[in-house]
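Need the bound structure for pyridoxal-5'-phosphate, inputs here:
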Amino acid sequence: MVRRNGWPESRSRALGTPLQPSVVYVADTPDALDDQYEGRTKGFSYAREGHPNAEVLARAIDALEGAEGGIMLSSGMGAVGACLMALLQAGDHVVAGNQLYGRSLRMLKEDLPRFGIETTFTDPTDAEAFEAALRPDTKLVLVEVVSNPTLRVADMAAITALAKARGITLVVDNTFTTPRAYRPFDHGADVVIHSVTKLLAGHSDVTLGYVAARDPEHRRKIYDCAVTFGFTASPFDCWLGERGLYSFELRFDRAEENARALADALARMEGVTRVLYPTRADHPDHARAKALLGGRGGNMVSFEIAGGRDRTNAFVAAAKNIAFAPTLGDIGTTLSHPPSSSHRALSEEARASLGISEGFFRVSVGVEPIELLIEEFAEAVGAAL
Ligand SMILES: *Cc1c(COP(=O)(O)O)cnc(C)c1O
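Answer from helper R.:
Posting the output first, comments after.
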């Protein structure tokens, strides 16, 4: 019998957020639908347009970012795509950081030109170069605050001032920094993007994105684009993301404390030729990191060991408890090797110009006991000597 029973009645409420997978919502009458569509009452109608689990999660991330009306997308790239497709049109020019997430670079380089949108890539740590890249037809600037994998810190104060002065929409992908270290809206950004997949959800079990815009007109365009192209997120993914988000601040603070200690320990190890961590005195953007991130360095550490592929193979094989996986933001520590993963498409010279040698590794530090992490890294570095 296809007659659905209602939800069982209960005086008490669920403490955990219920998972609501329903695609459609049943209205009482056409009048009730009119009320809903015309904004006189609130209600859901079709899951691609919105559902309770997306709403609960988006409001939680809004609170962290000081945002309103954030939208959940099916991935971080869904968020980047919805934002760029919604806010740009043929003939527009974009200025973007030259070390953005690989797929964001690809979208700007390979895909958007097919729709008549052109991008100039430039170094976001160099305000003069950034200014020189701006054109009269520049409509949008896309930057990440901390770059992958060399952890350079963008000159956000200068970039924001330049964008503001010319009425250019400033979009910040805040995935690496997270609102724990930097809240783009507090500093004048127009749009904030997250790959929620990473630190916010934190358990490598869900792919999700988030985008929030300060201008309601931008928000409306991004929402319509996401719903039309089908970029929006599923209830189950949002439900998992929400569960992960509850421990985000605890995880981030612990992982950051670990990252700082691991960076210092690596710097003392024989065989480690370079360590990159934003709050260390030997980091090239140390002063800017301090001013911008208020002493927070985040959970990412990069370092370099001497030698070629035999040494990097030996290092990874010896670090057997550290997951060798090209991701970041998991609750556990993960290790990535840009020359054989994220940056493998670049020539050796192009990698060298970014400061990425064969011995270059990036660590997404997790919440393990720090003594254990330091011991495991020391052993692996020793095995690669
Ligand atoms: C991972 C990542 C993305 C893409 O997110 P997905 O959820 O994997 O689609 C975008 N920007 C940054 C900075 C990222 O690290």
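Comments: The pocket of pyridoxal-5'-phosphate is lined by residues 75-77, 101, 104, 144, 173, 175-176, 195, 197-198, 207, 209 (CB under 6 Å). The chain has a mean pLDDT of 97.
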